[in-house]
Amino acid sequence: APCRGCHRNSLDKITAKTRQMEKEAKELFKSYLTHQGLLTSELRRLCNEAVQWFPTENITDQPKIVMLQELYRTLVHMKDALENIRKQQQVLSTPGAALLGKLESTQWAVRGLLSNTVCALCLKGILPNSRHTPERAAATNAFQQKIEGCKVLGNYSKFLEKLARDSGKKAPQALRDQKKRRKGTKRVEDSSRS
Amino acid sequence: MGHFSSGHSIIACLGSNNLMMLSRHECSYFLTIFTLPETQEFLPTFLKVSRNLPLQRLLVEWDVSDLAHQFELEMVFDIQVSRSEEMNVVWTEYYNTTLSKLNKTLHWSWDSELPLECTSHSVRIRSMVNDERFSKLWSSWSQWKTVLDTSDDYTPYIFPEDKVVEEGSNVTFCCIGGKDSRILNFLFNYTEYYYPDSNTSQRNMVITVNKVLHAEMPGIPAFCNLSGKGNKNYSATLLFVGKPPHEPKGLSCDTRDMTTLTCTWDPGEDTYLYGSSQKTLCYPETETDLEPIRCSWMIGQQMIYNLTLTAQNPLGETSANFVLDVAHRGKGFPAPFVQSNSYPHLTLGGLQPFTNYAFRMRCGAASHFWKWSEWSKTIRGRTNEAGKLDVWREVTPVLGGRNVTLFWKVSPGISFEITLEKLGKASEPEHISISALQNSTTISIDNHSYKISVAARNNIASSLPSVIIISRVDHTDLEEERVNGTVDGIYISWKATNAFHGYIVDWCNFPRSQLCDFQWKRFDFNTSSCLINSAAFMPGVRYSFRVYGSLANEDFFLGKKVGYTKELAPRLNPQGKITEMSSHTVTITWDSYPINESQPGFIRGYHVYVKTMEEECSLKGSTKHALSDGTVLCKYTVENPEEKRYVVKHLMPETTYALAVKAYTGGGETPIDAYIRVDTLHDISYLFVCVFSRIKDCCCPEIPNPNKSKALSCNGLKLNSEAVMKLTDCIPDTIVLENTSEANTLQLWSHGTILERESKVINPSWVYFVQKEEGDLMCTQSAPEACTSFENLAYSSQIALGSNFYQNLWMSEKSEPQLSISSYQPQHYTEIPSKDTVTSLREITEREDSLRYISQMEVPCSEVKLSNLPHSTEPLEHSSYKIQTVLGSELVTSTSDEDIHSQDSSTSSNSTVLLLLGRH
């Protein structure tokens, strides 16, 4: 019952979804920069600053379960951050601005990926830690809010880029691993268990 | 009153009243003399500077010595404002004031163009007594009083923060770098500003952007790029550029129902200031969530409203006032009626008779016309024939004449006058007056022809009479025709001929009700069909339509059509009764079943269902009918609804069946809810049981000697060879012959059936009963010679045939038989046990699986009809009949009341073979 509705191939779905979301994330970031007047190099530099809760390391190098847990944790943060950005923009933007539509679409995508991640963890017998304090908007003034949003979207875009690129690389490797596993190569089994 | 001396002293002479107020007890007359030096200096003291940031205003407070206040001197203060650490004086002002004894603190304020946050601001003041008697000398300066000392702050700032400004205004920004940092550049809306060379300090920067324009972004970033130490090397803010609200245009208020007033307006051009602050507040508050440009209020008795519409944003506010008279803003419903005098109806004159018209309406206020309502729905109608009432009649034959019921459409305020005239007879016309409220009346007439005239009458005049002729005979005996209906109505058609001027179709909206709501519709001469519908039409109700051809004033009945908008399955089940029964047939009847208009559909026929108790029914001539629970019934169809009887054939004797009859209509039938249980009789006709042997030949003499048979020799029992059939005989098949005499009915069991039920070993299919006409039975086995094959289980079942079958027959006779054993004599019939014994045997059989009974007789098989078989008491010489009984290994009670000699049935023989004589 805890894995109800989960597809067996949740991992494959994550990989496919990540690739799709990577493009969307880039577009969203670009749209945000344009819409907020942040295209100058000085301001973009601010957007490139690291957001604390994004993983610093390449999570695809981690064991599968650690990777999934990290992905889950990041997406939960992202979900809150997106909601904050959307709320800010709702106050600031022209009704019906394209950015609002893109933000909303990304929110759905993140929820989808989160759901797949929960499934993948569940299928591995792990219940993700649901204890989580919602992100509060730390920024004090309108400019800081703008930059916080930009940072989140910039980091998110980079995060997905890395994830999509590395999982794409991993895919053939995983395939080879599978083949080897079928032959009963012990080394591969060990690495997969690690 | 006081006065001043020549300039060096002031003598204050205080009035007694004043003094009394101040110090009543101490003095009555008091004189004090103050002297001031000519060069008296009143240095401003207690200088305080603060900021009101929202107003970008410096607030300055100070004081002078009490003495100055005491003399209520007129003074002038020189106030300097300087910025930054360098104390660049940016403002100097002389402030004149007359001091007051009561209010001692002095106030001054200054509005800064540069955001006060941008840099530190310092103020100093000096004073001078502004009196000719004194030498006008400035006091020395007070100390500088500074606000916002950022000199030691490492945090960078930018001002103003998140400011909203009007498009086209000049905006001054200032950047303040943290301590030890340097401003590199300032960036606003993609334009870079560099530090002006003239400015010596690079920690602060003031930039004025002229004529700012709105940008397509929510807040234009203003960004100071810094270098040097500090935890943050930039300071930035957003500038919101927009426009103050425009005066709302096109305020439009109206009411559709005189209860709710709704106002909308055009907010005008874009102000470029968006966000959640953009909303409408309606006062007094309304309950509903409203769109940004709409307010609605409930209105009461008040007609005149003074409305104020105010638009506000951070840049300003505009208002517009309106006086509104609700009575003039009624937009009206798109309703079919308008207020016309006091009665909501309009009478349209000048229409053509017998003409179709379509009507629609809209309304507007008669006085102070505001606007038209939307159009109402279109309604259509046809005017009557010129000046005549639309009258129709129904004729019902009664004893000695007819009842004529006249119908017309009621119009308020109009009464009716009926004139009845017998045609062909010189008689006085009869006049009947009918009140305005009635829409029908019934007149009794005899069988003669009558002319009936109906005229409508109001206070002023009478309409032309509508004439109806009732002829001598009303052709009402035409056969009714079934018509098909749909949810859209019932389609009626007739054969249009040139003989008639028009056609009339009449019907009842509620045919099952006493007040049938009689309806009629007229059609012109070239119409030959119509779709009749009414909101009153219900599925499962049979409607009857009569079609008349109209010629002059006479109407001729053309036919009756009956139909349903939708047929339903019959609610009433046929009450089936079993009226006849035999061993193979059951007759079920349901005589009283009605097939009339009370049914919710036309009864198309019946289904007779037969259910067997154990398994799927598969009777010959039936179709299979599976129920939802998986039961499979046999289904027979009776297609004639008048036929209320059915004979179910091919039944097995002595078997329980369940029967049900269902009537079906175009709407189908209801599920079976009850069965009639019936047990077929025992077979009382001749039965010809032909046991189809699987022994290699029909006439095989090579039957092993029973005495050598294992079956017979088991248990070491030595049977008397003479008690066993002769093997040299043509071995007979198993024949059972029953007496047809009712009094001497023989009962037969096929134990094979019983055994089959119990052990599933026996397949009875090898017993063939072929019924020919008159109930004759024939053996299907057509042997070339007059011989029969037989199967004796005792011999062959397990040994020779392996898996072959048994046929076990048991015979009995109800009447007390006279048994005699006459060995080897052909006896035409036998009877073994009495009825009681049979019962006991049967019980045993049912108890004991191992028990086997076999009766075997020998008859000529070939081409022998059972009816031709001897069944008289006369012995047949040419054939011998044998009954062979094989009993199971268990102890069996005696098979007969009579002692069957030569058999010791009480012995534990496996097989008892008896050859018994039939009765005489």
Mean pLDDT over the residues of chain B = 69
Question: How many strands in all of chain B?
Answer: 54
- Share of helical residues of chain A: over 70%
Structural class of chain B: mainly beta
What does the oligomeric state look like here?
A: heterodimer
Do you know the CATH topology of chain A? Answer: Growth Hormone, Chain: A
What is the total domain count of chain A?
A: 1
**Overall morphology of chain A:** globular
**Rg of chain A from C-alpha positions?**
18 Å
Distance between the termini of chain A: 27 Å
Summarize the biggest pleated sheet of chain B: 5 strands, mixed
Helix/strand structural class of chain A: mainly alpha
- Please name the CATH architecture of chain A: Up-down Bundle
In what range is the share of β-strand residues of chain B? 25-35%
Range of strand content of chain A: under 5%
Low-confidence blocks of residues of chain A = 184-194
Under the CATH scheme, which class of chain A? Mainly Alpha
The average pLDDT of chain A is 81
Secondary-structure element series of chain A: HHHHHH
Number of helical segments of chain B?
A: 6
Largest sheet of chain A: none
Protein name (chain A): Leukemia inhibitory factor
Region (Disordered) (chain A): 165-194
GO cellular component, one term (chain A): extracellular space
Pfam families (chain A): LIF_OSM (PF01291)
Short description:
Chain A is built from six helices and no strands. By secondary structure, chain A is mainly α.
Short key terms for the protein model shown above:
heterodimer; A: 194 residues; mainly alpha; Growth Hormone, Chain: A; 6 helices; globular; B: 920 residues; mainly beta; five-stranded mixed beta sheet; 54 strands; 5% helix; elongated; disordered N terminus; disordered C terminus; Leukemia_IF/oncostatin (chain A); Leukemia_IF (chain A); 4_helix_cytokine-like_core (chain A); growth factor activity (chain A)
